[in-house]
Design brief:
This is Ribonuclease BN (tRNA processing enzyme). This protein has 238 residues and is an alpha/beta fold. It contains 7 helices and 13 strands.
Length: 238
């Protein structure tokens, strides 16, 4: 199996019929990583991979449209038919575990560690997951947020997370075989299609995602001269 990206959802800031919020699956022959867990993506993930057999989950930031499905995932791992061998490695921004536990609070404590082996990201954080190397870079989104560079042998995938233009985004994209970049286009902490194209100028291929409600996908694609990711699509990274 080659290095592949499967699009689980791209919608922002809330899921639409047929399109969950941000979520993606990275896979090689031996490794599977869920990247961002927006509302609706846990259901779509199950079309492609067993959630309890994931090698890791990586979360770019704590906005709900990128992280909310960690909550039902917690219950799936602990109280349903999923049977993980051990807590699932979860990589995310500082404070992610506390935020989860606040939402999960009930009659008894629900520690995030019961389901997840939590690792807090920092700029330059590196993790070797199976045959993937995940490198995280702090990006500009108005709160702790990270972009991702995932390498499999000599093939590299880059993901912006949510960010405005910044040097870290350029660094993530440089030399990548495929760059998945947001094009929300609204406000100072997001990219326009032109920003995405500029960030990816040193990469082989650009794929847009997270297109904002003020843009049509056709307009975004035309402005960036790049295709827009659609839910259910799978791309060979190289």
């Amino acid at each position: 199996m080659t290095f592949r990206l499967t699009v689980l959802g791209t919608a922002t800031p809330y899921p639409r019929p047929g399109n969950p919020c941000s979520g993606y699956l990275l896979r090689t022959e031996h490794t599977a990583v869920w990247v961002d867990a927006g509302p609706g993506t846990l259901a779509e993930l199950q079309r492609h991979h067993r959630p309890d057999l994931l090698d890791a989950v990586w979360i770019s930031h704590t906005h709900a449209d990128h992280a909310a499905d960690l909550l039902p995932y917690y219950y799936a791992l602990l109280f349903a038919d999923q049977q993980p061998r051990a807590p699932i490695p979860l990589y995310g921004p500082p404070g992610l575990a506390d935020r989860l536990e606040t939402f999960l609070e009930g009659a008894a404590p629900n520690p995030a560690a019961a389901a997840f082996d939590v690792h807090e990201l920092h700029d330059g954080h590196r993790a070797d997951i199976g045959d993937l190397t995940l490198t995280s870079r702090a990006v500009h989104h108005g709160l702790p947020a990270f972009g991702l560079r995932a390498t499999h042998h000599d093939t590299t995938f880059a993901y912006s997370g949510d960010t405005g233009p910044c040097p870290a985004l350029d660094d993530l994209a440089t030399g990548a075989d495929l760059v998945l970049c947001e094009a929300d286009g609204a406000g100072p902490h997001h990219c326009t299609p032109e920003d995405a194209a500029a960030a990816a100028r040193g990469a082989r291929r650009l794929l847009l995602t997270h297109v904002g409600h003020t843009l049509s996908t056709a307009e975004a694609a035309e402005r960036a001269h790049a295709p827009v990711a659609r839910p259910g699509e799978t791309f060979t990274i190289r």
